[in-house]
Amino acid sequence: MKSASLITVLVATAALVAFGQEGVIQDVKHGAKKAGETIKDGLETAGATAKETAKTVGKKTKETAETVVEKTKETGETVATKTQQTVEGADERASETTHKTRHESRKSASRVKAQNTEEQTTHSGLETPAPSPTP
Questions:
Q1: Largest Cα span, the chain
Q2: 20 to 30 A from 66, CA-CA: which of 4, 52, 55, 131?
């Protein structure tokens, strides 16, 4: 019986060792599964955060582009208005200058004409023979 007891103890010890190892393996599997789930959750969170960040960046970029377009359009309109005002002002000044020049030219021509007429009158008086004294 001694040997039967010894065999029973050995079988029981081997069974306990085998069950103990099985328990450790189960613990390792469970830990690995838990770590995998944690990593997966972390990646999903990181992915969602990256997606939100990308949306925000895209939205801000679009808003900035729209603002740039609007400001460029306003600047173009301002430049066009200023250019038109400058051209109109130059046209007015040119017209005034032409009018003034024409007026001054007429005045000068009238003066020259008057001088010529005056000189002709003065010259014609000198050319007339002096009356001879009557005897």
A1: 206
A2: 52
Residue 29, phi then psi, degrees to nearest 5: -60, -45
Cα torsion at 8, 11, 16, 20 (round to 10°)? Answer: 180
Q: How far is CA 34 from CA 16, 20, 28, 41, 95, in A?
A: 26, 21, 10, 11, 91
Q: Which residue has the tokens 């019986």?
A: 1
Structure letter (DSSP) for residue 134? P
Query: How is residue 87 written in tokens?
Result: 């051209």
Name residue, tokens 């001694």. Answer: 2
- Mean pLDDT within 25-43: 82
pTM of the model: 0.41
Q: How far apart are CA 73 and CA 68, in angstroms?
A: 8
CA angle, 56 then 59 then 60, to 5°: 85
Q: In this structure, what token pair is assigned to residue 128?
A: 């007339």
How far is 76 from 7, CA to CA, in rounded Å? 102
- The residue count for the chain: 135
Strands in 5-122 per DSSP E? none
**Residue 122 pLDDT exceeds 60:** no
